[in-house]
Write a structure and sequence with these properties.
This protein is mainly alpha-helical. The protein has one domain. Helices cover 54% and strands 0% of the residues. The protein is built from six helices and no strands. The longest helix has 12 residues. It is globular, with a radius of gyration of 12 Å. The chain starts with 9 loop residues before the first helix and ends in an 8-residue tail after the last helix. The relative contact order is 0.21.
Length: 99
């Protein structure tokens, strides 16, 4: 996949979308009112890929924090790159009990 990220599970994250991943995980673990992740037609496919890639989620949050804001700004769900990174930072401490 040409848009794959160069880290473990990068092809999976590229299919899901980095911002979508953070948005959905934030919904799952932090805030049930955060619904931006629903703003795509491919929600079911992304959720399936999300559920099959849980072993990468903790590492992906750290990778998202290192991503270029311009790249994160290409998301289709209306989340600002700074908000994506704020959500990722809020999620990291929760990952110790996440399965």
């Amino acid at each position: 996949m040409s848009n794959a990220f160069n880290f473990a599970g990068g092809e999976e994250l590229a299919r899901i979308g980095a911002t979508w991943f953070v948005s959905y995980l934030y919904y799952v673990l932090c805030d049930k009112t955060h619904l931006n992740w629903q703003n795509v037609k491919t929600v079911d496919t992304r959720k399936s890929n999300f559920n099959g890639s849980k072993s990468f989620h903790k590492d992906w949050l750290n990778e998202v924090l290192a991503m270029n804001e311009d790249k994160l700004d290409t998301n289709e769900i209306g989340v600002d790159p700074n908000d994506t990174k704020k959500m990722a930072r809020a999620l990291i401490p929760l990952m110790t009990s996440y399965q």
